[in-house]
Structures
1.
Amino acid sequence: MVTQLLARFRKRRIFMACFIVPAAEAVVTKVVEKVAEKNEKTQEGSEKFHVPFSRKLRWLSNMLLGGSFLLLFEHIWHGEVQPFFPFLTAMSDAEATHEMLHEMATVGVTMAVFITLVWGVICVVTSVLEKKANAEVAAEQ
């Protein structure tokens, strides 16, 4: 039974392109980061301990790009990405393209959402620590 499952798995070609979704989110995040950075230069806060929103966005874009590059390397290693057109092996026929798009919509979106949620938790923890540090500074004065 196990050998039958392995044989069926080996026959099935897997077309993965899940790294494209987090990479696209990283590009959008990088653009928003640059706009936020430009706007923050004109504003200065009175709080001593404050992490700018542009830096928090940089954390998100770094997390997304890092994961995307690792997945790209893994997909190149397994032959799912090739150095010539079409770069994704799944773009060779319509059935494989459909499977690739489905995989991007399920696995890729799930990865991007999960990374963004982890980043959100990091931002909440950072905000709590900032408030605590600023309250201690205010109490000392």
2.
Amino acid sequence: MTPTLQYSTTPLPDFPLNLPPGSVSEHWTMPASHFKTFKEAVQASALMVSILFLIEVADLVLQHSRHTSLAGFGIVPRTVPGLVGIAFSPLLHASPGHLLANALPLFVLLILLFWDRHYYPIVTLASIWFFSGLGTWLIGRGSDGGRPVVHIGASSIIFGLVTYLIVAGCVMRSWRSAIVALFVLIGFGGIFYGVMPHAGPISWEGHLSGALAGVWAAKRNHE
């Protein structure tokens, strides 16, 4: 059964963001990954997903103790303070349920990415992270009923990894990448409905931006 993936949009909390956007190098290199075994890939993936849970716990503590939220560090489309969300939005979630919906698929896809150094895992993940966030900042809904909206959640990364692994399997011309692509298509292909424009709290803009970032990364790495 295809897992349900969510990338939520939530109203921006009533506090200003004064963090300056970071700079991003225009020149990418292609280092080989250090993750060469399945065990190491599982450990790397588990570490990254564990960080998401730690951040969610910290957010819940802030909500109960100080009545504030880390959600303000998400992407606020077409605003200068909202640029900081390109770095932080995949780490943040609207609720524990939102995080749980993303955790398992992200865990599986990261294992597949880190398991094969020919995917250039670090560069690929960084590319999907940045360009999915930038795309969301450019095309995302900026308001809901007159209220600013902030886009958060890791599903933009999930969509990017899905398209990357599928496209890479088509262009790398190896049996291993082709089998991975087929597995991902069968297991996660149903999520592509999420890139279609629709109303509601789900950020289809984040999904679409992530999917396009994954396609771009695959073609850039392997063509």
